[in-house]
Amino acid sequence: MLKTHVRPMAMAAEATVKEGVFHSPKPMPRNRGEASQFDPRPTQASISAIREISGEKDRVGKPRPVSPALRPVGNAAKYITMKPLTLLALLALGVGARAASLDAPPTDVIMLDHAKVDDSFAKGLPLLLNTSYKISAGRRVMAGTVEFHERDTDIIYVTEGTATFITGGTMVDAKTTGLNEVHATSITGGVTHHLSKGDLIVIPAGTPHWFKEVPGTFLYLLIKVTK
């Protein structure tokens, strides 16, 4: 019985490929005259649905349209092929715009509980932001870029780790990145500071500064005072 079924099943498989749709052949009846109750062939409706979603060409070579649900919507389409540097520049402009629209400092007393502060240090998040000052839980695990703030004085208090910190000097490849903000790749000259837990350093507005080396996790409380 096995030998008599091999050729018919092969012919059935060949026929399905020639039709342009591949599927398992219809099972042979166990006994002569017995009708099979199972047909594994996909329906034309299911084939069309799959091709509609995938955008596959139909049998006559016409490309089927991609489902609208899979197309980029609105302005998102032009960002898909945008160069990464261009996209980063637009994001930087957005950050600058938000910074320019910060609220005035609060007049009420504000307390942040230790759970929120600990979570902010674990993620390196800001704590309070307004037009007069900004308080952040700084977290670094590697060297950073050179920063220059035209209006912000930075006050840094180290809570964990060590870092080599450069202030002053001349910025290399300096570029404006936002409102009153300049970044650079490195500093020539300048003063080297070796920061460790418990140290406090104040960087006046208009002074280039750079975390040149950070050998491990470095945590610090950062207070920016805006003039």
Strands in their spatial order, largest beta sheet: 1-2-13-4-11
CATH architecture of the largest domain: Sandwich
State the CATH topology of the largest domain. Answer: Jelly Rolls
Query: What kind of oligomer do you see?
Result: single chain
In percent, how much strand structure appears in the residues? 25-35%
Q: Helical content, roughly?
A: 25-40%
How is the main sheet built? Answer: 5 strands, antiparallel
The count of β-strands is 13
What is the approximate shape?
Answer: globular
Determine the mean pLDDT: 74
Separate helix tally: 5
Low-confidence stretches: 1-6, 8-38, 56-60, 63-84, 86-93
Given this structure, which CATH class of the largest domain is correct? Answer: Mainly Beta
Computed Rg? 33 Å
How do the SSEs run, as a string of H and E? HHHHHEEEEEEEEEEEEE
Key terms:
227 residues; alpha+beta; Jelly Rolls; 2 domains; 5-stranded antiparallel beta sheet; 3-stranded antiparallel beta sheet; 5 helices; 26% helix; disordered N terminus
